[in-house]
Amino acid sequence: MSLAWKKSAIAMVAAGVLVGSMAACSTEREAEPESTGGAAAAEDTVVGIAMPTKSLERWNRDGAHLEGLLQDAGYETSLQYADNKVDQQITQLENMINQGADVLVIAPIDDTALAPTLQQAADADITVIAYDRLLLGTPNVDYYATFDNYGVGTMQGEFIVEALDLENAAGPFNLEPFAGSPDDNNAKFFFAGAWDVLSPYVESGKLVVPSGKQPATNDDWQSIGIQGWSSDTAQSEMENRLNSFYAGGAKVDVVLSPNDSLALGIAQALEGNGYAPGDGYPVLTGQDADQANVLNMIAGKQSMSVWKDTRALGDQVATMIEQIVAGEDVEVNDEETYDNGEKTVPTYLLQPQVITPDTVEVLVDSEFYSADDLGL
Ligand code: GAL
User: Fold this and answer.
1) What positions does the domain Periplasmic binding protein occupy (predicted)?
2) Do 287 and 260 contact (CB within 8 A), yes or no?
3) Superfamily of domain 3-141+309-351 in the CATH hierarchy
4) Residue 76 Cβ contacting ligand 1 at under 6 Å
C-alpha cells in the first residue's frame, strides 16, 4: 500500500521524541534506557516493510500477514516488494527513511548490499529488524527474527538418510545437491545443515554425486548456488546434469533441493527426462510448503518440504515492534549464532517443521491452506 505517513509521526520524528525512545531500546543503547521520557504509541509509529519479491509465494504471505497484524494494532505501515532487484529495494528503503519511518523490517535480496542504506537509517535513529534473512556487514541492524536455518538443512539431510535408509542400505545412491542463492546468508546455513548430515555418506561412498557438483567443504556451497532462488535456473541446471551425466542410463536417486522454488524447477527437469511419480522417482527435498509444491507432494513429485509458518514469524516480529515501541526489552533466544561480520545480532529463532505427502493435512488443520487450496 502507498505511504500515507501520519503528520504526527513525522513531527515526533523531527522532534527526536519518538526516535529517542526507539533508540533507547536498541541493544547498543540498553545502558541508557531512560533518555526519552516514555514509550511511544502504535498510532505514532511508522513501520516500513521491505520484502524481496512477489514472485515467490512465501514472501506474499509474509508481507500480507505482517502488514495486517501491524495495521490491526494501529501502526502506520508501508509494504514494498522489490522484484528481486537490489537497486529497487535500496530506493524503497531510502523512501521509507526519508518519509519518517521509525522501524524498518527488511528481508534483503542481497544480504551485503544494504550497508550504506542502513547507515542512513541509523543516522535517522531508525530501528532495523532483519526479517528471515540477516543483513551482513553492517553494525546498523538491531534485531533478527528467523527460523532455525541450520535446522532446516538438518531436517532435509535427515529426511534423505531415512528415506534411503542410508544406515542399512548398501547403496550406492546417486545424489545431486543444490544450494540456494549465493547472495543469501540463509542458503549457507541450509547447505551446512544438510551437508553435515550427508557428507559422511558421501565420504563413505554410499552417496555418490555423478555430476561432481559437490562442494569440497561447507564453505564452498556457493559453487552450486542458484542465483535468485530461480526455478528456471534450477530446472536448466538439473537438465544439464541429467543430459551430461546420466545419458548412459544411470538414474538419480536423490536431489537435495534447499527450497521449494528450486524443487519446482528440478521436478520439471525430472519429468522432462522421463522420471514419473512412483517407484524410481528420486527423493526430492524442499522448503516453504509453497502451494504448488504441496500439490507436487500430493502428486508424488516431491518428497518433503520444510514448513516455516510465516504467520509465526510475522507474529514474532510484531511482538518485537511492540516491545521496541513500549521501551521494553526485546525478547530474543539466540545471541551467538548470527554474526554478520560487524556484530552478533540478537535473534529470535523459530522452529520449522517437516511436511511429507502423508502429513499435508497439518497445513489445512492450521489453516495455512484450505482443503480446497490443496484439492483435498
Ligand atoms: C530464503 C528463505 C527461504 C526461501 C528462500 C527463497 O532466504 O529463508 O524460506 O524462501 O529464501 O526466497
Assistant:
1) 47-328
2) yes
3) Response regulator (3.40.50.2300)
4) no
Q: Are 297 and 307 in contact (CB under 8 A)?
A: no
Using CB atoms within 10 A of its CB, is residue 168 exposed (0-12), middle (13-18) or buried (19+)? exposed
pTM: 0.89
Per-residue pLDDT tens digits for 224-239: 999 999 999 999 999 9
Model pLDDT for residues 42-56, shown as the tens digit of each residue: 889 999 999 999 999
Q: pLDDT tens for residues 236-276?
A: 999 999 999 999 999 999 999 999 999 999 999 999 999 99
Helix, strand, coil proportions of the chain in percent (round to 5)?
45, 15, 40
Query: Which residue among 106, 229, 261, 338 has the greatest number of ligand 1 atoms within 8 angstroms of its CB, and so is best to mutate?
Result: 229
The CA-atom distances, in angstroms, between 135 and each of 123, 138, 145 are 17, 7, 11
Write out the three cell numbers for 76.
502506520
CB of 288 sitting under 6 A from ligand 1: yes
- Which of 288, 290, 350, 351 should be mutated for ligand 1, with most atoms under 8 A from CB? 288
Kindly report the protein residue whose alpha carbon is nearest to atom 6 of ligand 1: 229
Say if domain 149-307 classifies as CATH 3.30.450.20.
no
pLDDT for position 43: 87
Intervals of CATH 3.40.50.2300 along the chain: 3-141+309-351, 149-307
